[in-house]
Design goal:
By secondary structure, the chain is α/β, with parallel strands linked by helices. The protein contains 4 helices and 24 strands.
């Protein structure tokens, strides 16, 4: 049973004159069968209104996700596969899937034979802004509260879940590091980061390269043939030995990035509101269907 705008209960959930007020049907006489079909459609409309309320709640709650689950941002620096401070030097057939830049220096060498599938900024305002954003991200990462102190321990042969991992001095990766699950993985390293040849970082159970961050106090070196996941933000320099590859951004704040026949592809963080947006899309598909149906009714 339903109510009219004046509160009177009727034999059908919605009276026809109220449906006309909503603009859902043309001003014309309709048959009983047509009316019954119309009632079912209107009931669907009110279900949609309930979905709109649910959507509002979901979007609102998305803004209150715990900080540990929200995606960190590199700002415009995230567009760069490689960003150097004092220069970028390449040897061999390096491929960068993302932008290449340097600031405050304007020195870039070795492209070609290196290939940049993106823009190249040798100095200038774009690279300058990227360095500002990288510096801000570096400070944000360094100020995160650690969950576990791994000082003096090798990262190899470990499986870690999301969290903040602290090294008071250097960090070493020998063999394979496995990162498991969603959320952010932050590694705070007091001095240097080094990986041995053919070492690797494996992502499982929803872990994303775009949610892995390495904040390095001085310099990082990836060994020959290493397979690395996550963005490196190094205060000084980053060196890629022959054949090392990375999914993420190599961001050197003050020093140089040195490359040797490498492949580097930028990684986009998984947004904290990804699933609410998927839900949102399903809602709007339903509303598009309703708009098409209303247009057809108006023409009949």
């Amino acid at each position: 049973m339903g109510k009219t705008p004046h509160g009177t209960r009727t034999g059908f959930p919605i009276k026809y004159d109220f449906m006309q007020t909503l603009g859902l049907f043309p001003q014309r006489k309709i048959s009983g069968a047509f009316f019954r079909a119309a009632v079912l459609q209107i009931k669907g409309v009110f279900k949609m209104k309930n979905k709109r309320l649910i959507l509002s709640v979901v979007v609102a709650l998305a803004g209150f996700l715990p900080q540990g689950k929200a995606s960190l941002s590199l700002g415009s620096a995230g567009n760069f596969a490689v960003l150097g401070g004092s220069g970028v030097a390449n040897t061999g057939n390096t491929v960068l899937n993302g932008d290449l830049g340097v600031y405050p220096s304007s020195t870039i060498t070795g492209f070609g034979p290196g290939i940049v599938n993106g823009m190249t900024y040798a100095g200038g305002p774009v690279a300058a802004q990227a360095q500002i954003d990288a510096f801000s991200a570096y400070n944000a990462l360094s100020s995160a509260t650690p969950n576990l102190d791994l000082t003096g321990q090798d990262l190899g042969s470990r499986t870690l879940t999301s969290g903040v991992y602290f090294f008071s001095s250097s960090a070493q990766l020998t063999g394979t590091l496995t990162l498991s699950g969603t959320g952010n993985f932050i590694f705070q390293i007091g001095s240097t980061l080094a990986t041995t040849g053919s070492s690797s970082i494996v992502l499982i159970n929803g872990a994303q390269a775009g949610n892995v961050f390495w904040q390095v106090g001085t310099s990082a070196t990836l060994g020959t043939g290493a397979s690395f996941n996550g963005s490196i933000l190094a205060d000084t320099s980053i060196t890629f030995d022959t054949g090392a590859s990375m999914s993420g951004s190599a961001l050197a704040l003050t020093g140089a990035v040195t490359l040797d026949d490498n492949t580097i592809t930028t990684a986009v963080p998984e947004a904290a509101v990804f699933w609410p947006l998927v839900f949102c899309a399903s809602i709007f598909r339903a509303w598009r269907w309703l708009a098409v149906w209303r247009h057809k009714m108006g023409r009949s």
